[in-house]
Design goal:
It is built from 3 helices and no strands. By secondary structure, the protein is an all-alpha fold. The radius of gyration is 15 Å and the shape is globular. The model has no long low-confidence stretch (mean pLDDT about 80).
Length: about 90
């Protein structure tokens, strides 16, 4: 064996990779449409709750808690990865 296999570092995503990417693409579309919409933490939480299975959310007895801190973390990650500068047509 020449080298060890590389694993992803850090904590896993709360929504999963595919759903996390869908929420980010939706938020980017909101931001880049027309005059540019404002994306706040409340909008992030609403977009994630509508795209996620509602019975897995805390409000319906599930384990997933989408709060303001999670929304700020997602916005910070989007800014770091450069999603704000993408133009989706």
């Amino acid at each position: 064996m020449v080298s060890l296999p590389v694993k992803k570092r850090g904590r896993s995503l709360l929504l999963g990779e595919d759903l996390d990417m869908k929420v980010q693409l939706y938020l980017n579309n909101v931001r880049c449409q027309g005059n540019g919409g404002v994306v706040s933490s409340r909008i992030v939480m609403a977009a994630a709750s509508f795209s996620y299975d509602k019975y897995r959310l805390v409000e319906f007895g599930g384990p997933v808690l989408l709060n303001r801190h999670w929304a700020h973390s997602l916005l910070k990650k989007m800014k770091k990865e450069g999603y704000y500068s993408l133009m989706i047509i």
